[in-house]
Known about the structure:
The structure holds two protein chains of two kinds.
Chain A: H1 2-29, E1 36-44, E2 50-59, E3 62-67, E4 77-80, E5 85-88, E6 90-95, H2 125-131, E7 135-140, E8 148-156, E9 174-178, H3 201-230, H4 246-252, E10 257-262, H5 265-278, E11 284-287, H6 295-301, E12 304-307, H7 325-331, E13 336-338, H8 349-358, H9 364-369, H10 373-378, E14 396-399, E15 410-415, E16 418-422, H11 423-442, H12 469-479
Parallel strand pairs in A: 1-4, 1-5, 6-7, 9-10, 10-11, 11-12, 12-13
Antiparallel strand pairs in A: 1-2, 2-3, 5-14, 7-8, 8-9, 14-15, 15-16
Chain B: H1 3-7, H2 11-46, E1 63-70, E2 78-86, E3 89-94, E4 104-107, E5 112-115, E6 117-122, H3 160-166, E7 170-175, E8 182-190, H4 196-199, E9 200-209, H5 219-227, H6 231-264, H7 276-285, E10 291-295, H8 298-310, E11 315-319, H9 327-333, E12 337-339, H10 355-366, E13 370-372, H11 384-393, H12 398-403, H13 407-413, E14 430-433, E15 444-449, E16 452-453, H14 459-467
Parallel strand pairs in B: 1-4, 1-5, 6-7, 9-10, 10-11, 11-12, 12-13
Antiparallel strand pairs in B: 1-2, 2-3, 5-14, 7-8, 8-9, 14-15, 15-16
Helix pairs in contact in B: 5-6, 6-7, 10-11
Amino acid sequence: MKRLLTLAFLLTLACAVASAQTRGGQARAGGAAQDTLIRNATVLTASHGALPATDVLIRNGKIVAVGQNLKAPEGARVVDATGKFVSPGIIDPHSHSMMDGSVNECTKSVTSMANTRDILNPTAIDIYRELAGGTTAALLLHGSCNSIGGQSTTVKLKWGHPAADYPVPGAPPGIKFALGENPKRSNFNVPGLQGRYPATRMGVEETIRDAFMRARDYRADWDDYRARTARGEKNLIPPRRDLELEPLVEVLEGKRYVHSHCYRADEILMLMNLADEFGFKIRTLQHVLEGYKVASEIAKHGAMGSTFTDFWGYKLEAYDAIPYNAAIMTRHGIVTTVNSDSDERARRLNIEAAKTMRYGGLTEEEALRLVTLNPAIQLGIDNRTGSIDVGKDADIVVWSAHPLSVYSHPELTFVDGELLFDRQADIARRPALEAERKQLEQAEANRAPAQGGTPPRAPGAIRRAYADDDDKQDVEDNQR
Amino acid sequence: MKSTQLFAAPEAARRDDAKRAARRAPVLIAFAVLFALPLSRDARAQDTDRPDPQFSNTPAPTYVIRGARIVTVSGADIENGSIVVSGGRISAVGASVSAPAGAQEIDARGLTVFPGMIDLGTNMGLVEVSGGAPGSVDSQELGEINPNISAIWSINPGSSHIDVTRVAGVTSVLSMPSGGTISGQAAFINLAGSSPREMAVVPQAALVVEFPRIGGGGGFAAFLAAQQGITQDALAQRDRRVEELRRLLRDAEAYGRAEDAYAKDPKAVPRPETDLKLAALVPYVRGERPVIFRAEREREIRAVVRFAEETRLKPVIIGGSDAWKVAPFLKDHNVPVILDSVLNLPLREDDAYDALYENAAKLQAAGVRFCISTGDSGAHVRDLPFQAGMAAAYGLPKAEALKAVTLYPAQVLGVADRVGSIEQGKLANLVIADGDMLEPRTNIRYLFINGRQIPLVSRHTILNDQFKDRK
């Protein structure tokens, strides 16, 4: 136990240092968004081409002007971006960053009542690392453990802010579905662990169908109740609220987006057929690694596609994945994006986008859109972000070189006009952080007992809620 | 059997290979049928009388590549030069070379020729689908001490990872076994050929060791000790395993001496009892071939270097996430590092966000020998150029980034006499591209491995062709 506590102390130390970095982030944020003029950059708008030697003016968190020879308002920060590139902030349409603890509520096949919004950790260091890679927004998705998973959250990476500031105001709500190997748990068979229905793709279809039949009946019950109330009937008992079915009713009514994890062409078709039957649309097919095989059908249904550029072969259902997928879907008229599904990849989605120029011959702007404007469209937030256009939120990255070049890196990242990542400031801060770490390590409370630290307090005996002779007797009986 | 024979790809090994080839014949035929259509279509597109590189037991043709910018890597770039390829090798390179009669001409005007890239941290051909298809996984043997297993015997030349990787410009890899304490022997292969033997550049190129560390390797007991936070037990476990390793290496030295003594005087000296594990270790304990140790953290790296010096091995570190912290130490001890973590998340929450992006630049600045690897089992080895590019985005000079995936890996493994740069006499592993090879938007136009032109066809281009125009 003592050793465990020593470990706990080391963890506390790690947390202390991490939170020092967090505070650095807050200090850097500098409170409300300062007005900023970015001067003389090559501006990659993602909506209307590349603009050479162009200025971008940010006021009150919004892009208020894009053009030449703009005047800096009084007190504005002026960034000389000569030789540099400006792009919209990257939007990652499949992320599990800042989700504290597990991303999977895995105990049931339908967990539409679970909500990712309840577990946002605004101090997760991945947020900062992603900002340093030019990512400014993300769709936080429940895991793919179940056919119908939990509700998703669309966030901006507002590093230094409390969790409540992360969700994008007005962003349409979403929910995660999953098909194939993950919901049927085929790669997760642990000896001794009880299986869970479904265990086949047939069962996955049936699980979703069953849920939507229940949701349809549930809606009918409420419709009936409301109609009778409206007719003036008295003393009616309302249907029991069902937190599992309410989000699915929203799906049926087109008020909640379905983001469905999928791989194989057959399961993609299955889900679209089922959605057609119930009269709703799949908003995005996630991963959709065989989307290229059924791109016409996807376009016809009206779903969008969010894929990996070239991640493949890690399981059987990913074996037919090809890096041309994004290009083929794009050429079939599908609004396509490239996502990370990884705290690591989320730091370099610009490079993932650039690969589609090699694999499938997308143009620069098409490639850039895969990680900017298109994800904004998929998440229903393109009215406010995803491109460099006047009136949109100032979610902007200043790059050292063209962001579709492997040699580029972000210099500055703005979210809602707030400078949340500044490479030079980050580098300048390092000696101070190093010194702070050393100081913390030397602090008496953080030294191991062998190095002169106070031994951690040993816990006392387990306290019982109450104790009487019967309890004592119970214990003795159990020991026999 | 003498240990030296055992490792010089002797007759026994060749016979074994022939037997395997015979057993694989039906598979090869199936493979040929599967790929016949796209290959022949491609052949029509490029040139018709080129022998099929999948079955390359034919004399390598002669080519002359003309009008290209040549990035030799080892010397100055040649702005408008030519390369003659014959007998599998680069037979001439320069601003003006005379091409032999009958050489096939490659017009490379406006294109750039690079040496093929090399990744020293893969399990290429040993793993096809890691999740859900255990029958396709051959990377990790049971047991702790496996110096006598060799990747070369299990590399599947028909793996789709191979064609997918080479069309991205990676022409040679080290394919390593993994797991245990001594994982086995790695093979250095070209990514072309219809048998492991054809692919092999050095069949048994390095020994792979998972240096005992707390919570890593050492089976369930070590794992459990670390999990339970029983520091003393975990330390003792690790120390015991290091001691076992040390003893084993000493035994191998003694075994080698006994073998030599017997060879010198078989009448007077009793024949040592054959021990396959010790025999396999002999060239490594004699420092004839490198031993690759996995080590990430500062303490592990120092421990590995000290251990290797004490046991007189020729160490190479793979991993090296914390190598930047011990750069002067690595320089002083002249130990090279295979960095396979450029794109990993930093080890610690409070590391600088770019700690691993910058690692290569810091090693280069400190004069440490290093190269860059994907560390990927196979499917994503094609991302090697982008990992080098990312290191360049964070301070590594571009020319060094290119070397980090061409000449430096060749030097680290001791095969720079054969691969890694465009020089007369080296294997003709060449990539001809329409731009900077490390840039994702660059397209590769021609590919040569072992002096043979390789069609730019892979499982992925085939599926692309099949579906891209589907209505």
